[in-house]
UniProtKB/TrEMBL annotation:
This is HTH gntR-type domain-containing protein. In the C-terminal section; belongs to the class-I pyridoxal-phosphate-dependent aminotransferase family. It comes from Kushneria pakistanensis. It holds the Pfam family Aminotran_1_2. Keywords: DNA-binding, Pyridoxal phosphate, Transcription, Transcription regulation. The keyword Methyltransferase does not apply. Residues 12-80 form the HTH gntR-type domain.
Amino acid sequence: MTIWNPELSQEGPRYRALAQAIERAINNGELPPGEKLPPQRRLADALGVTVGTVTRAYALVEQSGLVSAQVGSGTFVKARPTAEGFARVIGAPHEGLVDLGMSLPPPHPTRQATLGRFMSAMALEPAALEQAIDYPLDDSMTTHRQRYADWLTAQGLTVDADELLITQGGMNGIALAMSALLSPGDRLAAEALSYPGVISAARQQALKMVAVPFDEQGIDVAALAARHERTPFKALYVMPEHHNPTTVQLSPERREALVALARERDFWLIEDGVMHLPPEARGTPLYQLAPERTIFVFSVAKILGGGLRSGVVRSPAPLLERLHISLRNQCWAPPALIAGIAGRWLDSGEADRLLAWQFEELEARQAMVREALGEFDLSMRRGGFYAWLVLPAEHRAQALVETLEHSGVRVASAETFCVGSTAAPQAIRICLSAAPGREALAQALEIIVQALAQNAPPRWQTV
Ligand SMILES: Cc1ncc(COP(=O)(O)O)c(C=O)c1O
């Protein structure tokens, strides 16, 4: 029987290198919860080190709380809460706090009233009520799928209604794609910083995540090829238009290279299009470049509202049946009532008006952020909800996040987005869209500027 046999870094003492390799394997899911670490003597023989080195490494990992040693049985990977990434972003709001931690659409004064109008209209349509109350059958969703397809196509995201499956929003679409494409133990690649929902869902589905470096052009395709060589993965989750959290956009050349690599190595692409940008700010979607191997995930959460929980996935025809089965196994089908409201809203022209307002509002808010923080290393993209701020050398993200929270402003630190054992850059994500209004945003920005102007706390208390 082969045993888990990691590659050790050549730097520093052997026991430390082994402890780091174990921690990395636990964080990326290669050693899942409950897994027994190899017997010390066998691992020592496999690695060509002494048993004492393995004992010290195991003790070090135990100190960090990731494994527990059980006398007479061995050392086991401990279970960890699955939604840890989410919990760090969501937290509990407290009074007076300007919460710029969540990626929410800017509050529109009539959004609720518009929802009310569509609900009232449906209440007067007996056929819609009948459909809403009965178990939804596949063909009962045809009209809603068509509305989604028409709206997306008008937005330049050309799709055929037959390629769509209605979901309960973006997270549901991602989870469906994962369960249709991957089995426990399979590898899923992603940018080294990624959407926390994916990190959390991958952990729960016992997938191993492969972290891939990226730069200002997007995912590094040469590094992706090298990762695939060493640790072949079945699918890549990627945000080509607006990377969460850094706002990076995948360049046209990288899109071509990525698609060519996916074809050569035969892996799937899960393309997250939930952050919806104006058409002229977008590139060619991957599902148009490689329709046969791309699942495109869309949601109305960043346009109409996250509470609706509605969206679609666009999939190559041979995969649709598997996605359908995954959906059935989860919830049978999304509520036709909600799909009906979202579809009508998109179809009515109201969504376009809302979106036009939203893009203008975001532009004004981004100008405020530029004005306040323009001297720092700041990234934003047109139509995007957040700014990514790389901190000046002396600042530490976690300390700054805590200082800001005490001062009444919540932002997310880069740590929240790290895939596997990726080292977190000293950076924060500021969701400028989430402030209840421009005044609250101005207040929050002032507090951020003040916090950045303060000297970072001295670190000499530690010897
Ligand atoms: C990049 C990204 N993908 C997916 C989602 C999930 O979308 P939904 O709220 O529709 O589940 C989010 C939500 O913030 C997101 O930021």
